[in-house]
């Protein structure tokens, strides 16, 4: 009954919202409709799953609840269908109240309004470690990194990093090194296939090894030798591999599920802090090794200096932090993108062959390659949406969103909406390269529907590195293998990221 009333209310407001409310000014406190003033509704009036004292809406996700066993994109889709373009999810057991936006123009209103020094919640447990635990006996206002800083500290850190990590010619210095990692991974794949042309190891772990080896070339200035079958378990490289994986497991448990760690020091928090500390020390170990190599090799011209060398010249502490952040942000994300792209190409052999022909042509420009990757990130994105914590009040779709509210834009759901992308559930890379008068042309969609790397000043600083890694590896795969898939689609589990889970039914046949 409650849900029915909400759906009726949303449908009655739909026309009014689209025609009038989108034009409401951020600073307004009411909306004028045909000479009548309609007061804004409050945050509590936003429809969403019903809540109970203390546990909030948690009961809706437990056995017997209406969202029990409904997960990921299906959960987001169901809430959108039940409650409309704006949904409130009340706080529960340490998690903040969240307002979810399924409307692109509303997303634009918030993201453009927050684009000077946006607050983007990410990993609260890591933020606690860097800002509180490490400095528990001292006062510190030093920047702690792009993942954990906000406002002025974040701006200071980002301003120092941009000239290095956003410079195309600096990233191009890694073209050969990244490609060598890709070729080494191809050799590993060929040597570890079974009689059915499937990799013997767990596919997600294999992709993580490739991604870690690739990002380490940039972040640490060295190869970790992740592909070495004789790499000792107690070696720094192997420990780093394990710790990066542990990081995401603890982040999922502490930051993306109900938890009491913000109120009491839980056993999981203590283990997470040990992981964060060990990962930080391992990062320093590899950077110090790289610094020794840089001294041995003598000075280079500015055009020949890589990312780590340039970061060390700016600020040694910043270099340590940025290297760790690149490891946090550049392993699972890149690996997941590759797994999704390979699955979609395997299920669409005609698209795979078209890509192969482009790669084999050896042309410097690869528009279809980029189109395939963009389409993969639309259908199987690494994250379902982007977060902001508002720094001022907003009027969104007739509701007053106060300062300090956590808002998430549901880009994945909007990307799968037929109103935004015709044949939305199909893998059609051509939509990214067709002429503007083609009905499939991606530019017909609202620009805030699709944002795999975020928006504005908080756009992913590692975008160019990630694109180079994926393009290099994908090119090597399609020129060596015909990729196939059998059985049902892979499971995608929504947690800290949208993880692709097994069974991994990829088949790699020699061409």
Automatic annotation (TrEMBL):
GO terms for molecular function: heme binding; iron ion binding; monooxygenase activity; oxidoreductase activity, acting on paired donors, with incorporation or reduction of molecular oxygen. Keywords: Heme, Iron, Metal-binding, Monooxygenase, Oxidoreductase. Transmembrane segments: none annotated. It holds the Pfam family p450. Heme binds at residue 460. Its cofactor is heme. The keyword Nucleotide-binding does not apply. Signal peptide: none annotated. InterPro entries: CYP11_CYP27_families, Cyt_P450, Cyt_P450_CS, Cyt_P450_E_grp-I, Cyt_P450_sf. Belongs to the cytochrome P450 family. This is Cytochrome P450 333B10. The lineage of its organism: Eukaryota, Metazoa, Ecdysozoa, Arthropoda, Hexapoda. The gene is CYP333B10.
């Amino acid at each position: 009954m409650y849900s029915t009333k909400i759906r009726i209310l949303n449908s009655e407001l739909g026309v009014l919202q689209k025609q009038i409310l989108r034009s409401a000014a951020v600073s307004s406190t009411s909306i004028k409709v045909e000479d009548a003033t309609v007061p804004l509704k409050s945050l509590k009036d936003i429809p969403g799953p019903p809540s109970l004292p203390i546990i909030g809406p948690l009961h809706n996700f437990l056995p017997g609840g209406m969202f029990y066993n409904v997960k990921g994109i299906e959960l987001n889709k169901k809430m959108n269908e039940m409650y409309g373009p704006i949904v409130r999810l009340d706080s529960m057991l340490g998690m903040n109240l969240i307002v979810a936006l399924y409307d692109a123009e509303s997303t634009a209103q918030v993201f453009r309004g927050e684009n000077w020094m946006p607050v983007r919640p990410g990993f609260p447990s890591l933020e606690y470690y860097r800002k509180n635990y490490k400095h528990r006996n001292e006062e510190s206002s030093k920047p702690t990194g792009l993942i954990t800083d906000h406002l002025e500290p974040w701006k200071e850190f980002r301003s120092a990093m941009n000239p290095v990590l956003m410079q195309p010619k600096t990233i191009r210095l890694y073209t050969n090194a990244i490609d060598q990692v890709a070729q080494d991974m191809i050799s590993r794949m060929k040597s570890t296939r079974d009689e059915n042309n499937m990799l013997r190891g767990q596919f997600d772990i294999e992709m993580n090894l490739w991604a870690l080896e690739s990002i380490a070339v940039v972040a640490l200035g060295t190869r970790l030798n992740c592909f070495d079958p004789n790499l000792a378990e107690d070696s720094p490289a192997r420990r780093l591999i394990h710790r990066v994986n542990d990081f995401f497991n603890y982040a999922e448990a502490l930051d993306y599920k109900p938890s009491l760690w913000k109120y009491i020091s839980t056993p999981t928090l203590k283990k997470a802090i040990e992981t964060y500390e060990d990962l930080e020390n391992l990062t320093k170990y590899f950077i110090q090794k790289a610094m020794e190599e840089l001294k041995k090799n003598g000075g280079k011209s500015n055009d020949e200096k890589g990312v780590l060398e340039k970061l060390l010249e700016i600020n040694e502490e910043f270099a340590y932090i940025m290297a760790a952040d690149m490891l946090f942000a550049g392993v699972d994300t890149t690996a997941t993108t590759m797994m999704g792209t390979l699955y979609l190409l395997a299920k669409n052999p005609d698209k795979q062959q078209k890509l192969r022909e482009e790669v084999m042509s050896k042309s410097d420009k690869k528009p279809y390659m980029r189109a395939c990757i963009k389409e993969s990130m639309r259908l199987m994105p690494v994250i379902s949406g982007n977060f902001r914590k508002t720094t001022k009040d907003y009027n969104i779709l007739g509701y007053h969103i106060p300062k300090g509210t956590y808002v998430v834009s549901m880009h994945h759901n909007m990307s799968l909406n037929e109103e935004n992308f015709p044949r939305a559930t199909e893998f059609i890379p051509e939509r990214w390269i067709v002429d503007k008068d083609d009905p499939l042309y991606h530019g017909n969609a609202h620009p805030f529907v699709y944002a795999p790397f975020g928006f504005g000043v908080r756009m992913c600083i590692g975008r160019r590195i990630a694109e180079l890694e994926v393009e290099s590896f994908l090119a090597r795969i399609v020129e060596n293998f015909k990729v196939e898939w059998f059985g049902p689609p892979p499971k995608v589990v929504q947690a800290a990221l949208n993880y692709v889970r097994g069974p991994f039914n990829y088949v790699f046949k020699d061409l």
